[in-house]
Write a structure and sequence with these properties.
The chain is mainly α. It has helices at 13-28, 50-73, 80-111, 118-134, 138-147; strands spanning 2-7, 33-38. The chain is built from five helices and two strands. A two-stranded parallel sheet has the order 1-2. The chain is globular and about 65 Å long. The protein starts with a strand and ends in a 14-residue tail after the last helix.
Amino acid sequence: MHILFVCTGNTCRSPMAAALLAKIAGRRGFAVEVDSAGIAPLANAGDEMAVVRGALARGLDELVQCSTFILTSEKRDPELVNAVAFNYLMLIGTVIGGWQLARGALVALEQRGPGGDEAFLEAQVVMARFYAEHVLPRCVAYGAAIRAGSGSLMALKAEGF
């Protein structure tokens, strides 16, 4: 299994999370490859990527907050992990999708110029912006559902189904 932690600068949060997971997994005998990455290159991308930069930073913050919530609440709420799994996976996938599209847009911005496929390169930037404006805002809703916990989900008895 390979796990990638993503944060803004890849200088503190994601390297620390990667190191902690690698240590814990090693102690428990799990074979896991752990790595970290950051979205810092977006900081130097200029105004054209401002929307992407902001939306991705908000999505990443939501992911960090939800991860912390799950890790600190699961002992008080044993059903929490099962109750939030879908929304947590959607949150992770949404943030990673935005990160990958942002990476593609950054490469496209670097390759613009004579001899390049301008239509293709422009499409990469437009797709990243569309995703930032229309998909990444869903991270807030996933986060709200995660922080709601398992109470209402587990309130129905099995006989009620």
